[in-house]
Every structure is written in C-alpha cells, then in structure tokens.
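Q: Can someone sanity-check these two? First one:
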Amino acid sequence: MKNTDFPKLKDNNPFKEKCEAAEESLNTGHELESIMIMGITLEKLTTELIRYSNIYMDSYSSQHDKIKQLRYTNRISYNLSQKFHKAKNIRNDISHGNKEDYSTYAPLMRSYFLEIMAWYDKNYITETINPKIKLKQYLNKVCNDSTITKIIEQEIDDEKITQNYQIIKRIKEKLINYVNNSDIDSEIKKEVKKEIYSGIIKNIPQIEEKINEITPIEIGVANIINTKNQMKYTIQSIDIHKEIKENMKNLEYNQHQNKQLQKDFNDYGLCIFTTDIVAICQNEKQSQLVKQDEITFNANKSYNNKKKEEMPSKIGVANIINTENMMKYTVQSTDIDNEIKENMESLKNNNHINKQLQEDFNKYGLSSFKTEIVTKCQNEKQSQLVKQDEITFNAKKSYNTNNIM
C-alpha cells in the first residue's frame, strides 16, 4: 500500500514519530505491523486524554472503559468514540487471530486512525501556544477536579477569564458554591471554607475527605438517584455517610448488589447519579421504618422494588382419586409433589397406611387412579385447614373418613 498520505502532524505532537512509523510500514507492505503500531498508539492516546481530562480511573481500567468515560464527559463526540471502538476491535481481533486478511483491514484501520489523529492534532496541539491554551495548561496544574476544570475551561473559551489569578479565584468560587450547596452543618461548612480560602483544599475530593473527617457518625436514610430516569435506590445505616460512600465505590468497581442499579450506572455513567440524605434518625429502628416508607413512596421508581423471580410454593393439598367410584384420599404437605409420589409408591408396594385405599388399588389397578392438586398454600397451617375442609366436603366419598382398620 503506497502513498498513504498521513497528515503532516505538528512537530510538537508527541505521537508524530509513531504515525510516521505506521506510514512507513504501510508503504513497505507490512500491514500487520502498521495495524499494531496504530492500535497501540491509539491506546496511549486514550490514556493521555484521560489524564488530561482529570478523569479518575484505576490502573486496571480497559481501553473500552476509558473511551466510554471520555464520551460520558463529552471530551470526545459520539462519532469519534465509535472510531476509537472500531479501531480497538480491529487490533484486538487481529491480536487474537480472528482476522488474517491484513490488506483488507489495514486501510480501514488507517481511515479511523487518520481521523482520530487529525482531531487530536487540531484540538490539543498548537505550533505557538495561544493565551487560552496557556491558561488551560495552568488550570490543569492548579486544579485536578474534572468537574470544575470543565466549567472553567468553558469560561476561558468565552474569555471570562484572561489571567492566572482569575483562574484561582474562580476555582475557589466553584468550591465555595459546592460547599454551600452541600447538606452539612453550618459549622462544618465554615471550617471547610476556611481551608479553601487558605489554599489547603483545592478540589472537590479534598472537600469530601475533609467533610468525612469532621462529620459526626449519623444514623440515617439516603437515596442514590439516577437523574436520567429519576429512579432511586434507598439505603439505611447507623453511619449513613459511610454507607453512601461504600455504595458509590461498589458502583464504580462494578460490584453493587443491586443488578439493575449497577446496569444503569454502567450505561449512564457516574455523572448521571447523585445522592440525597432523606432523614437523620434518632435510632436504627426509626431509620428502618423511614427506609421502608421511602421505598413505598417511590413505588415503581425504586430500584429496591425490582422484584426477583419467586420460586413457586411447594406447600399444598392434593387428592388421589379412584375413577371407578370417585372416592378420594386427601393429602397435605410442605412438599406436595413429593407427598403424592411417596403415596403412589406405597400403593404400588402394597404398604399404604390407608387400608381401604390400598384394597381398592389392588382391586382396580394403577390405571383406575389419578392425582390432582387441590391448591398451593402460603404456609403449612393454611394447607392443614384446606385439607380438613376438603375431607369434610367429600364426606362419604373420602378414604380419609372411611378407612378400614
């Protein structure tokens, strides 16, 4: 494949050397080598964009998850995210030996690679750093909070911020607003804001850490809210602040016990979810009652109400029926199917406890008997009452009341 026409990237683009290596491999007919160079380069670019965007992801996060987070935080467009995914898939398939026609997939990989690198070169690399880029670079040095960074970058683009000291001032304003909007005691707010003004606290995670340090342990109830569909997951604990933190951590690590909540979290992303303290309670019993009331109130909008498939009840009442004379033998058990089976086995073995039933079974044979479930019950006591009613109803046609001793 000759003359691949890779874009002439800017000299200070850190990926320029790898792009040139991929171009050379294509020009010399080494399609597999070129595909692997492009794939590895895009993986490194994804990591670089995550780092630049101050998105927290642990070291075990896959490229797939990183691309999803870049899309959720609007760092890349939907169309570009699809190019990233398709290029990743080509590289993975070839690495695992699923595709061997390199000459077919090399130009496809090249088209995705060209578009992504051209986008990166245009949006992140400049020949001479203009004032806005300088301010954004400074912003990323003094603030590692992606939420605040995104807001202030927009203010830089809108030229509301033109100097470094204004960035520091705006960061503090955003942090102060965050504290003011937090559902915490006024004395705690005062202490946290003091550390923001002094420069000790520089981002929202540090605010949360400070609040956790000085917030008293409180019994309470809270909701984890999906702002996309208004679904709520209600939790209750003797340390509600710690419980909220642990639930959110489990969601981030894809380990939450509520499968529907975890699925929505994976689909929508962290930015769609928020938490809300419903009530602070005097004791654990009160918090349990408040939790149940909250779940009932939310009704179909509660993740807690996602029903599990219930196992059918085994408790029940049944009849063994002689079709020759319509006599019935009524049985009851916590495992009614097994009870029917055991009774029929006893009849076949000529050792049934009911002598009259056994005599008729021996006389008429198996083909003259059938079984029927009268009803399934919620508990054993109910099944005992139903059995007695059935025997009474059958009266003279019941083997239970006409047994020969």
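And here is the second, same format, sequence then tokens:
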Amino acid sequence: MSKKTKSARGLVENAFTTLPLGSIRPAGWLRTQLRIQADGLTGHLDEFWLDIADSAWIGGNGEGWERGPYWLDGLVPLAFLLEDARLKQKAQHWITSILRHQQADGWLGPLQDGYYGYPYDPWPVFVLLKAMTQYQEATGDLYVIAAIERCLQKIQALLDLKPLTSWAMLRSTELALSMYWLYERTGQAWLLEFAHTVRQQSFDWLAHFGQPWCILAVQQPKFGAKPKMLASGPLVV
C-alpha cells in the first residue's frame, strides 16, 4: 500500500475511496437479510410506532431527538440498495419534510426540550446528516448539499458559544463524517477549521480507551482515523 500523501485540497488522501450508495448491489445471502429487514421492522416501523410515525422531525408531536434520525440512517441505504420503491418513498418523505422545515438560521430538526438537555443539542443532527449524505449520493439532489452546508455553519456558530457536551462530545466522529463528506464536494476551507474545533472539543477516546463502555467503545476505533485525515504522520487506530 502506498504511503498516504497530503492532497492539494488539504486532506490526507485515503488509500481507498468510499463508493457512493448504490454503486454496489447486494446479492445472495446479504440481499436476503436486507429483504428481511425491509419486510420487517425497518420497513414498517413508521406505520405503528408513534415516535417515528408522529415524529417531531416531520412536524408531528412525537419524539424529536435521536430515534427518527437513527431509523432514517438505516432506512435510506436499505431503500436504495434494494431499489425498493416503497422504502424510497418513505425516505423521500422524511428528507423532504426535514428540508422543508429547515430554520432560517440553518438548523435542521426540532429544538429539544429540557428532557433531553438543551434546545440546540447537535447530537441527533449528527445522525441525521449521515442519512442525508447517503440520500444525496443515491439521488444526486444538490439541494441536500446546500442544506447540510447551512446546518454545519449553524452548528459551528453554536460551538463558538457552547462547546460540545454530553452525547455530542462523546460521539463527535459522527459529525466528522459529514464534515469531510461536504469538504470533499465543496473544498471550502472553513470546514477544515471547523473540523479542528470539533476535534478539540471532543472526548479523548484514545486516552480513555483503556476503560471502554458498550456502544461508545466499539464505535470509537474510527475516532483516531478520521482526525488524521487532516494531518500527515502515522495513522493512529
């Protein structure tokens, strides 16, 4: 494998490039498992669970924190990998509704109440942006890119006032995925500066990893890799 080099656009070039959603189609056992998901809970959760069916993310009165984005983050790739028209319609309904309700300052989604901590809690937005990047790759919808850019600018402004805390601090790598995704498409330098800010405000999992805890621990090996896209030197994983 060749040594990673710094690209002209400011990121260390990856040894491998992630293919856009839909570039590879599942077959055999994998397709069967995805079909089971589509015919089961993932494909029907919005039809009976009010936290999804009446989610505040689409203008309803239900839960408006992480449940909707988590479901959407699984629904979008499932729909387009299977080329399932019914699931695509569900994904389009959610994405369109969220985009339609984007606030004037760029914020995506509902403001949180005291139950979840504070109004502009960016954690569930991190998950949403992952779903939106996949949707954009599959559809080519350029408006999604503009919406993500405005939302990231809003989050950047918020972090200048109040640093990352709680789940957003612990799971900031989920935001880094979307920041780098947008940078690779726009080349805007402010995104790299923002990435440095997020890294500085993040929980130091590399120092803490001797005391792992459930889902946070198993997801954080990637924490060392993503920030290193910004710098030269040996990769820490």
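A (reply): Looked at the second one. The radius of gyration is 18 Å. The first helix runs from residue 28 to 39.
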